[in-house]
Amino acid sequence: MVMQVIALILIRVELCCFLVKVIMGEKLAIIIPAYKTRFLRKTLDSVAKQSCREFTVYVGDDASLEDIGGIVRSYSKELNIVYHRFECNLGRKDLPGHWDRCISLSTEPLIWLFSDDDIMPSDGVERVLEALRKYNGKPIFMRLPLMVVDADGKMVYKNPPFETKQISGYELLLDKLTGKISSAACEYVFSRDVWRQMGGFVKFPMAWCSDDATWVGFANYAGGVISLLGNPVCWRNAAGTNICNSACFDKEKLRATALFIRWIREHCTSHVKERRLQEALSAYIHTVLSRSVRYNFTLLDLGRICSILGDFSYAMALQVAFRHIFKTNLFRRK
Fold first, then answer.
1. Could you give the CA distance from residue 309 to residue 303 in angstroms, rounded to a whole number?
2. Residues ≥6 apart with Cβ < 8 Å to 60
3. 145 contacts 230 by C-beta, under 8 angstroms
4. CA 52, CA 96: separation in Å to the nearest integer?
5. Closest Cα to residue 267, out of 307, 230, 316, 218?
6. Cα–Cα distance between 58 and 279 in angstroms, integer?
7. pLDDT tens digit string along 136-159?
8. Rounded distance between C-alpha atoms, residue 208 and residue 252, angstroms
9. What is the percent of the chain with per-residue pLDDT over 90, rounded to a whole number?
10. What is the distance between the alpha carbons of residues 251 and 246, in angstroms, rounded to a whole number?
């Protein structure tokens, strides 16, 4: 009987929250898939300082061993915030799947996927909603300037200024492959319709390249990426907190890279034979092999990647093979 009463109270509370959101006209959901508490307060502090308050924060606890809920509840008076703890950890084996289920907690038409360690500029929400009003009723995909910071919040890298107000998904892909820009989930905001129509996030091992493929797909569906000028969002790339900095997942990174190249071949069919794309892919593979896995790859790994590159250009595939074949690790992996 007691449990039934509690359940009824919870249902009424959720209904009241929904009605408040409808009356206030909130259109933005800030989604925070959370697992670690190390920087979570700094992230929520940046959200609490927003100049525009027309949003709801959703924190999806991926069965963390740390007290995510305690931190979130301490912001209940400062933020319109919803906390949900998932009973099973999904991020370890399917991080994009965890992102998708966190988004499913919300109902707002606009989604800003954040993380538990990033920092939002104080006028971020205001700029996003201004763009939404301008493009009201259309599928929308937008990005903010990005700055990479370390554990202490000090700048490591800052993307170059936007050159145009909008670019295509293909141009975004080229910028990423050539290393012209860094990319992180926290810089992108998108319509729920875009996310739904694309079937959620592209899934690769360890989510390596998953976001890059997803952003290109979202941009293609929405008709391009809208650039929002102003202060950058800060992506925290701290040692020990990101697989980019770990050699433990090199095998998964290489497998995901091969799948990403195949995805590009299947979704950019009209550009497959273009020299620009081939040169960008060659540069990207060199970066992955030399920096991401630090030459910790086998002849089989290289052969798998070059086999797919052959669908773009046999000459390019051979060039990549000859450039890296003598740097393969033939003994540490079988």
1. 10
2. 31, 32, 33, 34, 84, 86, 98, 101, 102, 105
3. yes
4. 29
5. 218
6. 41
7. 878 999 999 999 999 999 999 999
8. 8
9. 85
10. 11
Q: Kindly compute the dihedral angle of the four CA atoms of residues 35, 37, 42, 46, in this order, to the nearest 10 degrees.
A: 30
User: Rounded to the nearest 5°, which phi and psi values hold at 242?
Assistant: -140, 135
Question: Phi/psi at 332 (nearest 5 deg)?
Answer: -85, -20
Tell me how far apart the alpha carbons of residues 68 and 85 are, in angstroms, rounded to a whole number.
9
Instruction: Read off the pLDDT of residues 65-85 as tens digits, 9 standing for 90 and up.
Output: 999 999 999 999 999 999 999
Task: Say if pTM beats, i.e. exceeds, 0.70.
Answer: yes
What is the Cβ-side half-sphere exposure of residue 75, based on CA atoms within 13 angstroms? 23
The strand order across the sheet containing 146-149 reads 155-158, 146-149, 233-236
Measure the CA–CA gap between 158 and 156, rounded to whole angstroms: 7
Distance CA 42, CA 75 (A): 12
* Higher-scoring residue by pLDDT: 11, 155: 155
Rg of the chain (C-alpha set): 21
